[in-house]
Amino acid sequence: MVIKYKLIKESHDSMARLGEITTPHGTFETPVFMAVGTQATVKTLTKEELEAIGSQIILGNAYHLWVAPGHEIVKEAGGLHKFMNWDRAILTDSGGFQVFSLANPKDISEEGVTFKNQKNGDVLFLSPEKSIEIQNALGSDIMMSFDECPPYPSTYDYLKKSVDRTIRWARRGL
Hints:
Blueprint: E1 4-10, E2 17-23, E3 26-30, E4 35-36, H1 47-52, E5 57-61, H2 62-67, H3 71-76, H4 80-83, E6 89-93, H5 96-101, E7 107-108, E8 113-116, E9 123-126, H6 128-138, E10 142-143, H7 156-172
Parallel strand pairs: 4-5, 5-6, 6-10
Antiparallel strand pairs: 1-2, 2-3, 7-8, 8-9
């Protein structure tokens, strides 16, 4: 899958810029508003309504789709585009934020994060590689790297370790 970015215009007075991203499911300008379809649906809006308002990309979430219905089920259905009847671009979040905000991580290590599924209490493990595997199975156009989301407040030393670990995780997810 090839993604292309083209810089269209850059402000000389600020850091603002206008760009264009091309994915296998369409081209859209940046900056862009992404409708949130966390669990493969944008609540309260139909596909036709999203198209009518000019939505060019939807944000899905690897964590939620892994937990339910399961990335394998979405893959068997032909990927997230077919599963949700959306033929435009989809960006999937890695699930990192949800692991740290919803699931109360039990163990954060260089390998990944062990945590409890908030729906049924099962112990799960998510690594950078697993996050990318899930997003690949979903058929995402743009995938986000698994990241550690440290709590607030955190010490400088903890934040530095967290950022360094996130960089190493990003390299492993390539």
